[in-house]
């Protein structure tokens, strides 16, 4: 007579880790995050000061550790800035 197979052990569900303190909240649906070097002329982005349009190709300084890109305000085309992103 053949032995019956033992039942498979059920794996316990892993507990969900609570969010760590100081971590940003998840992005709303439809929001994309890209690296500064992926910006192209004509792209638009927004921050706490308003909406910006990219008018120059990104370039790096400090051995590739800092990224600069020329942007202008979408509502005021004469206002140009070159924000800096550190890696």
Per-chain topology:
Elements: E1 44-47, E2 50-54, E3 59-61, E4 66-68, E5 71-73, E6 80-81, E7 84-86
Antiparallel strand pairs: 1-2, 2-5, 3-4, 4-7, 5-6
Task: Please explain how this structure is put together.
With 87 residues, the protein is an all-beta fold. It is built from no helices and seven strands. The strands form two sheets. The protein has a four-stranded antiparallel sheet, with no helix packed on it. Strands 3-4-7 form a three-stranded antiparallel sheet, with no helix packed on it. It is elongated, with a radius of gyration of 24 Å. The termini are far apart.
Entry summary:
The protein is mostly beta strands.
Distance between the first and last residues' Cα: 68 Å
Instruction: Write the H/E string, N to C.
Output: EEEEEEE
What helical percentage do the residues reach? Answer: under 10%
How much of the sequence lies in strands comes to 25-35%
**Number of H/I helices:** 0
Report the sheet with the most strands, covering strand number, pairing sense and barrel closure: 4 strands, antiparallel
Rg over CA atoms, rounded to whole Å, is 24 Å
Name the overall outline: elongated
Tally of strands: 7
Order of strands, main sheet, comes to 1-2-5-6
What is the mean predicted local confidence, pLDDT?
84
Computed structural class: mainly beta
Which ranges are low-confidence, i.e. pLDDT below 50, for 5 or more consecutive residues? none
């Amino acid at each position: 007579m053949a032995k019956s197979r033992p039942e498979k052990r059920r794996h316990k569900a892993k507990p969900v880790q609570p969010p760590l303190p100081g971590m940003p909240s998840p992005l709303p649906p439809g929001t994309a995050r890209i690296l500064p070097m992926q910006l192209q002329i004509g792209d638009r982005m927004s921050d706490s000061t308003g909406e910006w349009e990219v008018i120059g190709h990104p370039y790096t300084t400090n051995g590739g550790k800092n990224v600069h890109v020329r942007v202008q305000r979408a509502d005021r085309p004469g206002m140009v800035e070159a924000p800096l992103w550190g890696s």
